[in-house]
Specification:
Blueprint: E1 12-13, H1 15-31, H2 37-71, E2 75-82, E3 97-102, E4 109-116, H3 125-141, E5 146-152, H4 155-164, E6 195-201, H5 206-222, H6 242-259, E7 264-271, E8 280-282, E9 288-290, E10 298-302, E11 307-311, H7 315-329, E12 332-338, H8 341-351, H9 364-377, E13 379-382, E14 389-393, H10 404-408, H11 414-443
Parallel strand pairs: 1-6, 4-5, 4-7, 7-12, 12-14
Antiparallel strand pairs: 2-3, 5-6, 8-9, 10-11, 13-14
Helix pairs in contact: 1-5, 2-3, 2-5, 2-11, 3-5, 6-7, 8-9
Length: 444
């Protein structure tokens, strides 16, 4: 089975269109008196106040690790100029030249962030958007080029985007078959559609970025069932076409690396579930038919890079595509798998496997220890094939926990204030633990 070529015109909605549409939709909120105009800017100021003191230390941590990596490769070298102070020793020591410490320039980094827009994300999309915004603020602070995409395949939302991009005159003229995301050639893997909506990027000016953040925070609020707001049709949720999104991103990642002159690129996926299974291929009549891995030896191939991997289980398709992406783009892949505490036990037990695919936690005692670690640190780091790091974390895993102010507001004694201060510091340390691990990964 060949990996199909993406039709990028049918996949990408650029940031300008996405933000224009969001601005227009949220203007309706104000007009219909669901929302006050000044409230949107209050959301931005509140976000900055809540997270800036958190983003600063993260940026410092990254710069320190990056500098340490560069310094570790430094070396002492002769300049070719004679050191006059050593000239008197030339008869018994030929080391009379000035020395200089050569420290190579630190490598340049870039991030592409991919946000899952599947239906199961609705209750945690608010926290997920905040996590994405924290990472983009971090990138801007340390001058890392970045771009943020949401991925999904909702047809109604795609119609809106196609109208906005003037690809079709109106929603009624939309025909899904005319806007397929991937080419259908015989023996291609049969991919369903995918949409990549660009939300944020480092190319935005300060004013455009601030307006985009404002829109994202209103969107975050609209996903809350108690907000009284509704989210636009263009932001409707769908399935989880993650494999398709990663294939579509491969060419874009190479362009992103080239245009920004980057040494290291990283793909960061924020999601709450596994990719939809790919279990069909394209036959001679261009129809999708089932792949029979029980009857045949089936391989995913890319002749250009001499890539060939066998499909033995349906999860293998996604796993092999991850490996293909890393080879094609030279990128690292990080996962933030969002999971509520009450479901963490089952998720960790299912996903924790060795290189042979065998479950690690057959022993309940060890599983309990892993769960205890997850509850304490708010994340658990798993070794998942073809991910550089795979973090299972709660939806608030990247956001700062309760501040000292909130914990101490009801304190009535010195002892209670001290207790609140200790608790706030402890929670702050724990909430940063995973992000520090992530920064260590991307700075390497």
């Amino acid at each position: 089975m060949d990996i199909p070529k993406p039709n990028m015109n049918n996949i990408i909605t650029p940031a300008k269109r996405v933000q224009e549409l969001m601005t227009k939709e949220y203007a309706k909120f104000v007009k219909e008196k669901y929302f006050k105009a000044e409230k949107a800017m209050e959301l931005v100021n509140e976000f900055k106040r809540r997270n800036e003191r958190y983003i600063g230390p993260l940026a410092k941590e990254f710069e320190m690790r990056k500098a340490a990596k560069a310094f570790s490769k430094s070396k002492l070298s002769d300049t070719g100029d004679i050191d006059i102070n050593k000239l008197s020793s030339y008869k018994f020591d030929d080391n009379i030249f000035r020395k200089v410490m050569l420290t190579p320039k630190g490598k340049s980094h870039g991030l592409v962030l991919l946000l899952d827009k599947s239906g199961s994300m609705q209750d945690i999309l608010g926290d997920s958007i905040e996590q994405i915004l924290i990472l983009t603020m971090f990138c801007r602070k340390v001058n890392i080029p970045f771009v943020v995409y949401g991925f999904g395949n909702n047809i109604e939302g795609n119609k809106v985007d196609m109208v906005e991009m003037k690809r079709i005159p109106n929603a009624q003229s939309y025909g899904a078959s005319n806007f397929e995301s991937f080419e259908r050639e015989h023996k291609n893997l049969h991919f369903t559609s995918v949409r990549l909506r660009e939300y944020l990027s480092s190319k935005m000016s300060n004013s455009v970025f601030t307006n985009a953040v404002k829109n994202m925070l209103v969107l975050k609020k609209s996903y809350s069932r108690r907000s009284g707001l509704y989210y636009p049709v263009s932001e409707f949720l769908s399935n989880t076409p993650m494999t398709q999104a990663i294939v579509a991103l491969a060419g874009m990642m190479k362009d992103f690396k080239r245009k920004n002159n980057l040494d290291i690129t990283n793909l960061v996926v924020v999601h709450d579930g596994d990719a939809d299974h790919i279990n069909n291929f394209v036959n001679e009549k261009k129809y999708g038919v089932a792949i029979e891995i029980q009857r045949y030896n089936v391989f995913i191939v890319d002749d250009k890079i001499k890539f060939q991997r066998m499909i033995q289980e349906w999860d293998d398709v996604h796993t092999h595509i991850l490996e293909w992406f890393k080879i094609v783009t030279g990128s690292k892949i990080f996962s933030f798998y969002l999971e509520e505490h009450r479901y963490a036990r089952a998720t960790i037990k299912e996903k924790a496997r060795d290189s042979e695919g065998t479950h690690i936690f057959k022993d309940e005692l060890k599983l309990n220890e892993a769960l205890k670690k997850f509850k304490k640190e708010n994340f658990y780091d798993l070794n998942i094939r073809n991910y550089d790091r795979f973090f299972i974390t709660s939806p608030r895993g990247l956001t700062e926990e309760d501040s000292f102010d909130s914990l101490a507001q009801n304190a009535s004694s010195i002892r209670e204030i001290k207790s609140a201060f200790t608790a706030a510091n402890k929670k702050r340390t724990v909430s940063r633990a995973m992000v520090n691990q992530f920064i260590q990964g991307i700075a390497a």
